From TrEMBL:
Lineage: Eukaryota, Metazoa, Spiralia, Lophotrochozoa, Mollusca
UniProt-annotated location(s): Membrane
Every G-protein coupled receptors family 1 profile domain range: 42-312
UniProt KW Cytoplasm keyword: no
UniProt name for this protein: FMRFamide receptor
GO cellular component terms, semicolon-separated: plasma membrane
InterPro entries to which the protein is assigned, alphabetical: GPCR_Rhodpsn (IPR000276), GPCR_Rhodpsn_7TM (IPR017452)
Amino acid sequence: MANCTQICKLDVSSSQSELLGLIDVLFSCAIVNIIAVLGIMGNVLNIAVLCHHDLNETTTILLLAMSTTDMLFLLTSIPRRFVCVLSKFCTYPAKVLNAFATAYLWMPNRYCGLVSSGLVTLIALERFVAVHFPLSVASMINRERMLLVIWLMCVFWATLSAPFFALYDIDWNQEADASPHIVLASFIEKDTNGYNTLNVSIAIIRGPVSVLVIVVCSMAIVARLYDATRKMTEGLSAQRSTRDLRVLRMLLVVTSVYAVIGIPLSIPYIVYYVSPAISVKQDGTLTDFAILMEIVNDLLYVLNASVNFVIYVTMSTKFYATYIKLLSKFCSKFRSR
Protein backbone atom coordinates (compact mmCIF):
# COMPACT_ATOMS: atom_id res chain seq x y z
CA MET A 1 0.00 0.00 0.00
CA ALA A 2 2.82 2.39 0.83
CA ASN A 3 4.54 1.59 -2.47
CA CYS A 4 1.35 2.29 -4.38
CA THR A 5 0.89 5.63 -2.65
CA GLN A 6 4.46 6.66 -3.27
CA ILE A 7 4.09 5.97 -6.96
CA CYS A 8 0.69 7.67 -7.26
CA LYS A 9 1.85 10.87 -5.57
CA LEU A 10 5.37 12.17 -6.10
CA ASP A 11 7.35 12.70 -2.91
CA VAL A 12 4.70 11.15 -0.68
CA SER A 13 5.93 10.25 2.78
CA SER A 14 6.09 6.54 3.51
CA SER A 15 5.11 7.32 7.10
CA GLN A 16 1.61 8.52 6.22
CA SER A 17 -1.26 7.03 8.17
CA GLU A 18 -2.68 3.69 7.12
CA LEU A 19 -6.16 5.20 6.79
CA LEU A 20 -4.94 7.92 4.43
CA GLY A 21 -3.07 5.33 2.38
CA LEU A 22 -6.26 3.30 2.09
CA ILE A 23 -8.23 6.37 1.01
CA ASP A 24 -5.56 7.21 -1.57
CA VAL A 25 -5.66 3.71 -3.02
CA LEU A 26 -9.47 3.63 -3.07
CA PHE A 27 -9.80 6.93 -4.91
CA SER A 28 -6.62 7.03 -7.04
CA CYS A 29 -6.74 3.37 -8.07
CA ALA A 30 -10.47 2.81 -8.45
CA ILE A 31 -13.00 5.63 -8.19
CA VAL A 32 -11.17 8.31 -10.19
CA ASN A 33 -10.32 5.89 -13.01
CA ILE A 34 -13.89 4.57 -13.23
CA ILE A 35 -15.34 8.08 -13.37
CA ALA A 36 -12.75 9.07 -16.01
CA VAL A 37 -13.67 6.14 -18.28
CA LEU A 38 -17.38 6.92 -17.95
CA GLY A 39 -16.61 10.61 -18.53
CA ILE A 40 -14.76 9.84 -21.77
CA MET A 41 -17.75 7.84 -23.02
CA GLY A 42 -20.09 10.67 -22.03
CA ASN A 43 -18.01 13.34 -23.77
CA VAL A 44 -17.77 11.24 -26.94
CA LEU A 45 -21.57 11.06 -26.94
CA ASN A 46 -21.72 14.82 -26.29
CA ILE A 47 -19.54 15.48 -29.34
CA ALA A 48 -21.60 13.12 -31.52
CA VAL A 49 -24.88 14.74 -30.48
CA LEU A 50 -23.66 18.34 -30.68
CA CYS A 51 -22.26 17.76 -34.19
CA HIS A 52 -25.85 17.04 -35.28
CA HIS A 53 -27.01 20.41 -33.94
CA ASP A 54 -26.63 23.79 -35.61
CA LEU A 55 -22.89 24.54 -35.50
CA ASN A 56 -23.61 28.17 -36.34
CA GLU A 57 -25.06 28.69 -32.86
CA THR A 58 -22.48 30.08 -30.46
CA THR A 59 -23.82 28.01 -27.57
CA THR A 60 -23.36 24.79 -29.55
CA ILE A 61 -19.80 25.82 -30.46
CA LEU A 62 -18.96 26.45 -26.81
CA LEU A 63 -20.45 23.17 -25.63
CA LEU A 64 -18.68 21.26 -28.41
CA ALA A 65 -15.34 22.86 -27.55
CA MET A 66 -15.85 22.12 -23.86
CA SER A 67 -16.77 18.47 -24.50
CA THR A 68 -13.63 18.09 -26.63
CA THR A 69 -11.30 19.62 -24.04
CA ASP A 70 -12.94 17.61 -21.24
CA MET A 71 -12.44 14.41 -23.23
CA LEU A 72 -8.76 15.26 -23.83
CA PHE A 73 -8.38 16.08 -20.14
CA LEU A 74 -9.73 12.68 -19.13
CA LEU A 75 -7.67 10.85 -21.77
CA THR A 76 -4.47 12.41 -20.42
CA SER A 77 -5.60 11.76 -16.84
CA ILE A 78 -6.04 7.99 -17.06
CA PRO A 79 -2.37 7.04 -17.76
CA ARG A 80 -1.24 9.16 -14.80
CA ARG A 81 -3.75 7.56 -12.45
CA PHE A 82 -3.38 4.06 -13.88
CA VAL A 83 0.07 4.08 -12.26
CA CYS A 84 -1.61 3.21 -8.97
CA VAL A 85 -3.33 0.14 -10.44
CA LEU A 86 -0.20 -1.03 -12.25
CA SER A 87 1.90 -0.71 -9.11
CA LYS A 88 -0.24 -3.32 -7.40
CA PHE A 89 1.04 -5.92 -9.88
CA CYS A 90 4.45 -4.73 -11.07
CA THR A 91 6.43 -1.94 -9.43
CA TYR A 92 9.06 -1.21 -12.08
CA PRO A 93 6.67 -0.66 -15.05
CA ALA A 94 4.59 1.52 -12.74
CA LYS A 95 7.64 3.68 -12.01
CA VAL A 96 8.39 3.95 -15.72
CA LEU A 97 4.78 4.91 -16.52
CA ASN A 98 4.78 7.40 -13.67
CA ALA A 99 7.93 9.03 -15.01
CA PHE A 100 6.70 9.38 -18.59
CA ALA A 101 3.15 10.37 -17.61
CA THR A 102 4.44 13.10 -15.31
CA ALA A 103 7.01 14.40 -17.76
CA TYR A 104 4.84 14.40 -20.89
CA LEU A 105 1.17 14.33 -19.81
CA TRP A 106 0.97 16.41 -16.64
CA MET A 107 1.08 19.82 -18.34
CA PRO A 108 -1.08 18.95 -21.38
CA ASN A 109 -3.58 17.55 -18.89
CA ARG A 110 -3.52 20.73 -16.84
CA TYR A 111 -3.77 22.90 -19.96
CA CYS A 112 -6.94 21.08 -21.07
CA GLY A 113 -8.40 21.73 -17.63
CA LEU A 114 -7.57 25.43 -17.88
CA VAL A 115 -9.16 25.73 -21.32
CA SER A 116 -12.26 23.91 -20.10
CA SER A 117 -12.63 26.32 -17.18
CA GLY A 118 -12.26 29.24 -19.57
CA LEU A 119 -15.01 27.83 -21.78
CA VAL A 120 -17.38 27.58 -18.81
CA THR A 121 -16.72 31.25 -18.07
CA LEU A 122 -17.38 32.10 -21.73
CA ILE A 123 -20.70 30.23 -21.56
CA ALA A 124 -21.76 32.34 -18.57
CA LEU A 125 -20.76 35.57 -20.35
CA GLU A 126 -22.41 34.52 -23.64
CA ARG A 127 -25.69 33.67 -21.89
CA PHE A 128 -25.57 36.94 -19.94
CA VAL A 129 -25.29 38.92 -23.17
CA ALA A 130 -28.00 36.82 -24.87
CA VAL A 131 -30.43 37.26 -21.97
CA HIS A 132 -29.90 40.94 -21.24
CA PHE A 133 -29.26 42.19 -24.78
CA PRO A 134 -31.54 39.95 -26.89
CA LEU A 135 -32.15 42.54 -29.61
CA SER A 136 -28.48 43.15 -30.34
CA VAL A 137 -27.01 39.74 -29.48
CA ALA A 138 -26.90 38.65 -33.15
CA SER A 139 -24.66 41.59 -34.04
CA MET A 140 -22.56 41.32 -30.88
CA ILE A 141 -21.95 37.57 -30.86
CA ASN A 142 -21.71 35.44 -34.00
CA ARG A 143 -19.93 32.24 -35.01
CA GLU A 144 -16.76 33.92 -36.28
CA ARG A 145 -16.36 36.14 -33.23
CA MET A 146 -16.96 33.28 -30.85
CA LEU A 147 -14.34 31.13 -32.58
CA LEU A 148 -11.91 34.06 -32.33
CA VAL A 149 -12.63 34.51 -28.62
CA ILE A 150 -12.09 30.78 -27.99
CA TRP A 151 -8.80 30.88 -29.91
CA LEU A 152 -7.61 33.93 -27.95
CA MET A 153 -8.56 32.25 -24.68
CA CYS A 154 -6.52 29.17 -25.67
CA VAL A 155 -3.55 31.39 -26.51
CA PHE A 156 -3.92 33.20 -23.18
CA TRP A 157 -3.72 29.96 -21.16
CA ALA A 158 -0.92 28.62 -23.36
CA THR A 159 1.11 31.78 -22.74
CA LEU A 160 0.64 31.62 -18.98
CA SER A 161 1.38 27.88 -18.89
CA ALA A 162 4.35 27.90 -21.27
CA PRO A 163 7.08 27.83 -18.55
CA PHE A 164 5.58 24.70 -17.02
CA PHE A 165 5.72 22.62 -20.21
CA ALA A 166 9.48 22.22 -19.77
CA LEU A 167 9.32 21.82 -16.01
CA TYR A 168 9.77 18.04 -15.80
CA ASP A 169 12.38 15.88 -17.44
CA ILE A 170 13.26 12.21 -17.17
CA ASP A 171 16.59 11.14 -15.76
CA TRP A 172 17.79 7.60 -15.13
CA ASN A 173 19.47 6.95 -11.82
CA GLN A 174 22.41 4.66 -11.20
CA GLU A 175 20.64 2.20 -8.91
CA ALA A 176 20.73 -1.52 -9.61
CA ASP A 177 17.15 -1.64 -10.87
CA ALA A 178 17.74 1.41 -13.09
CA SER A 179 14.35 2.78 -12.04
CA PRO A 180 13.58 6.17 -13.58
CA HIS A 181 12.87 9.16 -11.43
CA ILE A 182 11.58 12.63 -12.25
CA VAL A 183 14.00 15.53 -12.14
CA LEU A 184 12.60 19.05 -11.78
CA ALA A 185 15.04 20.46 -14.32
CA SER A 186 13.55 23.98 -14.45
CA PHE A 187 13.34 24.18 -10.66
CA ILE A 188 17.01 23.31 -10.45
CA GLU A 189 18.09 25.86 -13.05
CA LYS A 190 15.79 28.72 -12.09
CA ASP A 191 14.36 30.45 -9.04
CA THR A 192 11.35 28.55 -7.73
CA ASN A 193 9.67 31.75 -6.52
CA GLY A 194 8.83 32.74 -10.08
CA TYR A 195 7.15 29.41 -10.74
CA ASN A 196 5.25 29.53 -7.46
CA THR A 197 4.00 33.05 -8.16
CA LEU A 198 2.90 32.10 -11.67
CA ASN A 199 1.28 28.93 -10.34
CA VAL A 200 -0.81 30.75 -7.74
CA SER A 201 -1.73 33.44 -10.31
CA ILE A 202 -3.10 30.77 -12.63
CA ALA A 203 -4.97 29.22 -9.70
CA ILE A 204 -6.55 32.55 -8.74
CA ILE A 205 -7.64 33.29 -12.32
CA ARG A 206 -9.05 29.82 -12.76
CA GLY A 207 -10.64 29.74 -9.32
CA PRO A 208 -11.88 32.91 -7.58
CA VAL A 209 -11.84 35.18 -10.64
CA SER A 210 -13.66 32.73 -12.93
CA VAL A 211 -16.12 31.81 -10.20
CA LEU A 212 -16.84 35.48 -9.48
CA VAL A 213 -17.61 36.14 -13.15
CA ILE A 214 -19.81 33.03 -13.32
CA VAL A 215 -21.69 33.89 -10.11
CA VAL A 216 -22.37 37.49 -11.18
CA CYS A 217 -23.56 36.43 -14.63
CA SER A 218 -25.62 33.58 -13.19
CA MET A 219 -27.36 35.86 -10.69
CA ALA A 220 -28.25 38.27 -13.49
CA ILE A 221 -29.55 35.37 -15.59
CA VAL A 222 -31.59 33.99 -12.69
CA ALA A 223 -33.24 37.38 -12.23
CA ARG A 224 -34.21 37.40 -15.91
CA LEU A 225 -35.36 33.77 -15.73
CA TYR A 226 -37.63 34.61 -12.82
CA ASP A 227 -39.17 37.46 -14.79
CA ALA A 228 -39.59 35.27 -17.89
CA THR A 229 -41.19 32.47 -15.84
CA ARG A 230 -43.64 34.92 -14.33
CA LYS A 231 -44.64 36.14 -17.79
CA MET A 232 -45.11 32.56 -18.95
CA THR A 233 -47.55 31.89 -16.13
CA GLU A 234 -49.47 34.97 -17.21
CA GLY A 235 -49.61 33.72 -20.81
CA LEU A 236 -47.40 36.46 -22.16
CA SER A 237 -44.68 34.22 -23.63
CA ALA A 238 -44.60 32.08 -26.72
CA GLN A 239 -43.62 28.40 -26.95
CA ARG A 240 -40.20 29.34 -28.22
CA SER A 241 -39.55 31.18 -24.97
CA THR A 242 -40.19 27.90 -23.14
CA ARG A 243 -37.44 26.17 -25.15
CA ASP A 244 -35.08 29.08 -24.53
CA LEU A 245 -35.75 28.87 -20.81
CA ARG A 246 -34.90 25.16 -20.79
CA VAL A 247 -31.59 25.86 -22.51
CA LEU A 248 -30.86 28.67 -20.08
CA ARG A 249 -31.59 26.48 -17.08
CA MET A 250 -29.33 23.73 -18.43
CA LEU A 251 -26.43 26.11 -19.04
CA LEU A 252 -27.03 27.67 -15.65
CA VAL A 253 -26.59 24.26 -14.04
CA VAL A 254 -23.38 23.66 -16.04
CA THR A 255 -21.87 26.95 -14.87
CA SER A 256 -23.13 26.47 -11.30
CA VAL A 257 -21.47 23.05 -11.05
CA TYR A 258 -18.16 24.58 -12.07
CA ALA A 259 -18.65 27.50 -9.66
CA VAL A 260 -19.03 25.02 -6.80
CA ILE A 261 -15.94 23.06 -7.90
CA GLY A 262 -13.74 25.96 -9.03
CA ILE A 263 -12.81 27.38 -5.63
CA PRO A 264 -11.69 24.04 -4.09
CA LEU A 265 -9.50 23.37 -7.15
CA SER A 266 -7.46 26.51 -6.47
CA ILE A 267 -7.05 26.01 -2.71
CA PRO A 268 -3.95 23.69 -2.77
CA TYR A 269 -1.95 26.10 -4.94
CA ILE A 270 -2.85 29.08 -2.76
CA VAL A 271 -2.18 27.18 0.49
CA TYR A 272 1.25 26.06 -0.72
CA TYR A 273 2.13 29.61 -1.79
CA VAL A 274 0.99 31.22 1.47
CA SER A 275 2.29 28.53 3.84
CA PRO A 276 4.54 25.87 2.26
CA ALA A 277 5.05 24.18 5.62
CA ILE A 278 1.43 23.02 5.59
CA SER A 279 2.00 21.11 2.34
CA VAL A 280 5.62 19.97 2.40
CA LYS A 281 7.69 18.51 5.23
CA GLN A 282 11.32 19.41 5.85
CA ASP A 283 12.48 16.24 4.09
CA GLY A 284 10.62 17.31 0.92
CA THR A 285 7.73 14.84 1.21
CA LEU A 286 4.08 15.82 1.23
CA THR A 287 2.18 16.19 4.47
CA ASP A 288 -0.97 14.16 5.11
CA PHE A 289 -3.01 17.33 4.60
CA ALA A 290 -1.41 17.93 1.18
CA ILE A 291 -2.04 14.32 0.15
CA LEU A 292 -5.68 14.62 1.19
CA MET A 293 -6.02 17.86 -0.82
CA GLU A 294 -4.57 16.13 -3.89
CA ILE A 295 -6.97 13.20 -3.52
CA VAL A 296 -9.95 15.59 -3.30
CA ASN A 297 -8.61 17.64 -6.21
CA ASP A 298 -8.20 14.57 -8.42
CA LEU A 299 -11.82 13.61 -7.75
CA LEU A 300 -13.15 17.14 -8.38
CA TYR A 301 -11.18 17.54 -11.63
CA VAL A 302 -12.52 14.27 -13.04
CA LEU A 303 -16.08 14.92 -11.86
CA ASN A 304 -16.04 18.37 -13.44
CA ALA A 305 -14.93 16.91 -16.79
CA SER A 306 -17.43 14.03 -16.66
CA VAL A 307 -20.70 15.42 -15.32
CA ASN A 308 -21.90 17.48 -18.29
CA PHE A 309 -23.33 14.52 -20.22
CA VAL A 310 -25.70 13.78 -17.34
CA ILE A 311 -26.75 17.45 -17.22
CA TYR A 312 -27.41 17.60 -20.98
CA VAL A 313 -29.44 14.38 -21.08
CA THR A 314 -31.58 15.19 -18.06
CA MET A 315 -32.23 18.87 -18.78
CA SER A 316 -32.29 19.23 -22.58
CA THR A 317 -35.12 17.49 -24.46
CA LYS A 318 -33.45 18.37 -27.78
CA PHE A 319 -30.17 16.79 -26.70
CA TYR A 320 -31.95 13.71 -25.35
CA ALA A 321 -33.98 13.29 -28.56
CA THR A 322 -30.84 13.51 -30.72
CA TYR A 323 -29.05 11.05 -28.46
CA ILE A 324 -31.91 8.53 -28.72
CA LYS A 325 -32.00 8.99 -32.50
CA LEU A 326 -28.26 8.32 -32.86
CA LEU A 327 -28.46 5.36 -30.51
CA SER A 328 -31.32 3.86 -32.54
CA LYS A 329 -29.33 4.23 -35.76
CA PHE A 330 -26.30 2.60 -34.19
CA CYS A 331 -28.37 -0.31 -32.86
CA SER A 332 -30.02 -0.80 -36.26
CA LYS A 333 -26.66 -0.94 -38.04
CA PHE A 334 -25.27 -3.30 -35.41
CA ARG A 335 -28.22 -5.69 -35.79
CA SER A 336 -27.99 -5.68 -39.59
CA ARG A 337 -24.46 -7.05 -39.49
